[in-house]
Amino acid sequence: MFRRLQSIVRRAFRVLRCSKKLQTGLLVVLLLGLCTATSTASPQPSSLTAQLAAPSTFDIALIGDLGYNPAEESQFATLMQDLDRANIEFIVHDGDFKNGVFPCTDQVFQDRLAGFQQSRHPFIYTPGDNEWTDCHRAGSDPLERLAKLRTLFFATGTSLGQTTIPLERQSAAFPENARWTRGNVLFATLHVVGSNNNLGRTPEMDKEFTARNAANIEWLKSSFQMAKQRNLAGVMVIMQADMMFEAPANKRTGFNNTIAVLQAETEAFQKPVVLVHGDSHYFKIDKVLVDRQNQRLLKFTRVETFGTPDAHWVKATIDANSANVFEFSPVLVPENLAP
Fold first, then answer.
1. Burial, 265: exposed, middle or buried (Cβ in 10 Å; 0-12, 13-18, 19+)?
2. What whole-number distance in Å separates Cα of residue 224 and Cα of residue 312?
3. Is the pTM above the cut of 0.70?
């Protein structure tokens, strides 16, 4: 390429009747300028990774409810080492990085954040109830802890991890609600947590629930609207709470709005929809949502991730060209298997 460029430039300079010495000098300046422009235009590694088109088929990792106490931190570290070796696009943690009675200190938060940031892959996290709503059990103010979580974990427009991907955040008030697209599929986190989604404990908590629930509903609806407008192949929603689909409505008052919107949007979308959550620590994949006629919504799949004491992960394979779009399989970490 250099020889060809050199030949073209020299012919042009001969037409201009430049001396050989001047031709050589101008050629060097031209090449240096090209190199500088190329270097300046090149994005940083993390930005470049985000701009690359996803392969037609790719894998992601789904985890949650892990590292509940210091004794289990080594299991979480082993799990992260296994994920670092995996060929995946990104990791999603669906909440609860500590148990509900363990102290909700700044140090615990910072330690967990540092661990997430060490991930070789982009790492997306959505809060669980153990991180804030249940912190009153450990003597902390839940709303103050929620504010701290937002400041620490959701301060930028990118994922966590050593390599990042850009995320769209809902607002400054609700930055934990995020979404992104990959491989013609929309992914969205939704801040819905256990303990009845923080409804029914105190008037102050009920006020918090009302505001966040309204934001969640708006985010869920707009995410499906985006998927329809862009003709995307599927939607994956990730939250912490097990919304107790099978329970009577009066036993899940903090979740009824979200379930109703998921039902309506899945029916309207008419393409594969997946809800990923944790909370109950029981890995399962099922068809749990029904329509208004009590018929099973077969386009909707619920996936619950592993949780302590089972420190393993779920692999989701995404292929927008397949009929089901999503395929799931458990990945057991050998070092974390009980003897």
1. buried
2. 30
3. yes
Residue 36 confidence (pLDDT): 38
- Summarised one tens digit per residue, pLDDT across range 179-221 is 999 999 999 999 999 999 999 999 999 999 999 999 999 999 9
Strand order in the sheet with 326-331: 123-125, 91-93, 57-63, 313-319, 326-331
Tokens of 178: 């995020």
Which of 75, 117, 88 has the alpha carbon at shortest distance from 332? Answer: 75
* The one-letter amino acid at 326: F
Positions of E strands within 109-260 = 123-125, 168-169, 178-182, 185-189, 234-238
Rounding to the nearest 10 degrees, give the CA dihedral for residues 312, 149, 71, 119: 50
Residue pLDDT, tens place only, 133-189: 999 998 999 999 999 999 999 999 999 999 999 999 999 999 999 999 999 999 999
CA distance 106 to 124: 20
Residue 6: φ, ψ to 5°: -60, -45
